[in-house]
Design brief:
Elements (H helix, E strand, L loop, with lengths): L8 E4 L1 H5 L8 H12 L3 E5 L4 H7 L8 E4 L4 E4 L4 E5 L4 H13 L4 E4 L8 E4 L6 H10 L3 E3 L12 E6 L3 H14 L3 E7 L7 E7 L4 H12 L6 E5 L5 H6 L2 E5 L11 E3 L6 H9 L5
Parallel strand pairs: 1-2, 1-12, 2-3, 7-8, 12-13, 13-14
Antiparallel strand pairs: 3-4, 4-5, 6-7, 6-9, 9-11, 10-11
Length: about 280
């Protein structure tokens, strides 16, 4: 990156990227955030976490400016403390997709519309899935079962379908979904529980981390040429394809590493190392 590069916005994923594996923030990353703020550079979180879960690991004193949460289904202004964008799946398609997933006998969660998408419905397939049980344990207090044959009659933020680590099965199901429901987008995510399962996330077709960051850029009249993105997984692809300077951390999937600039791992404060390439220390 040249010395005359005009970076005006830096967007980073959280889990496996900005956060360490224990969900803490390194002193180096915190200092890098402050350095960006001193330079007048916008600091954006782009995460698959919902807003409530994001705020639980990013307390108010951590100097970010915006949160693109739930993979772009919502955008939150931290300085103004207000939701400024949301995009949910409409009621008709929520019901159609629910009926399809139930018919396929799959294990899934269905999240309520933004900003209440920390709450969800759930459906258990007939085949036991330990990953589903592990995820359910984290959300049990905010979950309720889908009642057979009862109409949902609500918009929804997303579906989360959990199945074993079988990329071929994912691709077949993804293709089927996109043919049946062109109004939605299907994303692949590695399980943050580190169990080897694949998570399939289903959103409104316009939702992505990249579109969320684009919304912020449009709002503040920032040219995408002046943006930098950092990610670690398949659900960061839209972000990294949108930003002009795009980094994949060392702990990211091997099949993505040739597509983006390389960075240290999240355990080695990758965020701070990248900021250092933009503004090298004088010493």
């Amino acid at each position: 990156m040249g010395k005359n590069t005009k970076i005006k916005l830096v967007a980073t994923d959280l889990d496996g990227t900005f956060l360490k594996n224990d969900k803490s923030i390194s002193n180096e990353n915190l200092e890098a955030l402050r350095k960006l703020g001193e330079k007048g550079i916008l600091r954006v979180i782009a995460t698959g976490r919902n807003l409530q879960k994001t705020i639980s690991v990013i307390p108010p004193e951590i100097p970010f400016d915006y949160i693109v949460f739930s993979s772009g289904a919502g955008v939150y202004d931290l300085k103004g403390t207000k939701l400024i964008y949301s995009q949910n799946i409409d009621r008709i398609h929520v019901q159609q997709i629910t009926d399809f997933l139930v018919g396929q006998d799959l294990n899934f969660h269905l999240f309520r519309p933004v900003p209440d998408n920390y709450k969800c419905w759930y459906h258990r397939g007939s085949v036991h899935c330990s990953e589903f049980d592990s995820y359910f344990a984290f959300h049990q207090s905010h979950s309720e079962p889908l009642i057979p044959d009862q109409k949902i009659n609500s918009e929804a933020c997303q579906f989360l379908v959990v199945f074993p680590n079988d990329p071929e099965q994912f691709l077949v199901l993804k293709k089927d979904f996109e043919q049946r429901f062109p109004e939605v987008k299907v994303l692949r995510t590695s399980s943050p529980l580190e169990t080897g399962y694949i998570w399939m996330e289903i959103f409104h077709q316009s939702v992505s981390k990249g579109s969320g960051v684009k919304f912020v850029c449009d709002l503040l009249e920032i040219n995408p040429e002046h943006t930098l993105g950092i990610g670690n997984d398949f659900n960061d692809l839209d972000l990294l394809e949108f930003t002009n300077y795009s980094y994949l951390v060392e702990n990211g999937p091997a099949e993505l590493k040739t597509r983006f600039l390389s960075a240290k791992s999240n355990e080695e404060s990758a965020f701070a190392r990248i900021v250092e390439t933009i503004f090298p220390s004088s010493h």
